[in-house]
Amino acid sequence: MKKLILVIFSFLTLSNCSVKEKPEFIGLENIKISDANNITVQITADATFNNPNDIGGKLSTESIKVYVNDVEMATLLSDEFKVPAKEHFSIPLEVKIPTDSIISNKSIAGLLGSLLTQKLKVQYKGDIKYKVIGFSHKYKIDKTETIKIKL
């Protein structure tokens, strides 16, 4: 009898919660160099969303590639992020790039230009996947921004 009541209660609870639509991807914001030293350069960004649904879900990055001055430097891999219900939220996208790969032969011209102009062209390109019970959606990410280098 207790199991039947639990099943009915669970069904009623889940039937009141619904996925009306996918969370809205607002954009990629705050792209910046958050840390730089002689070993790595850490570039961060925030992927901002609004979830109008009564239930959450999970977001995961799907091989987002990071380009610096049009040269692929890293692939962003991260853990799944919990999506809060009925909330505006953002998830951090962080990548550490070895300093020596930025100074490699294939990007030396771009690096010299960046040092002269004190600007760096950073591009995030790939997918973020939203998953919830029986529903999934991919958001295409392709954002390029020129960020200022602090010397």
UniProtKB/TrEMBL annotation:
<protein>
    <submittedName>
        <fullName>LEA type 2 family protein</fullName>
    </submittedName>
</protein>
<dbReference type="InterPro" id="IPR004864">
    <property type="entry name" value="LEA_2"/>
</dbReference>
<dbReference type="Pfam" id="PF03168">
    <property type="entry name" value="LEA_2"/>
</dbReference>
<feature type="domain" description="Late embryogenesis abundant protein LEA-2 subgroup">
    <location>
        <begin position="50"/>
        <end position="144"/>
    </location>
</feature>
